[in-house]
Please model this.
Amino acid sequence: MPDQESQTSTDAAPDVLAEATAAIERHELWVARDLLAGHVREERDLEALRLLGEVHHGMGDLPAAGAVWFGAGVKGPEVDAAVRAWRASHGDDFGAMWRSLPRSVRQEPRSKKVEALRAKALEARSAGESTPDPAGSAASSGGGIDAAQIIAWVIAAFVIVCAVVGLIQILRWMVPGG
Model:
């Protein structure tokens, strides 16, 4: 059955591109953006990435267009301007730039440019310049106390104490003369 799944995935790309193109023709750029962004989150589709960059550019979101076009390997003067805007919007923070790429672009195999960005993000992280993990996970590189994590541990401890007290009370009811 894997052939059917891969066929379904392949068939979905022309549908998404056709729907997005129709939305663009209706001047509903936000619809096209949402369709394409959802598609390229899971599928590395260079045509969809190129079109998504055009949609972002048409909406005036140069940094988003630059990120997508960088990931797709698109070239041209508009692309260069958008990539400059993308870099400027992140202050050349390579970790932030890495995370702004669509997930499918960050997955292996990667283009040489994307792999170079990942390497710079990892290098910056190890130098302490960027705290989030450039590999895309939610882990951080330490160097501080996370308040949400402390709250989660306190709540977990409270739940465990309540469970133990409840178990003791149930055992008292069940054991005669206790």
Observations:
- The chain is about 70% helix and 0% strand.
- The mean pLDDT is 82.
- Residues 16 and 72 are 17 Å apart (CA to CA).
- Residues 147-174 form the longest helix (28 residues).
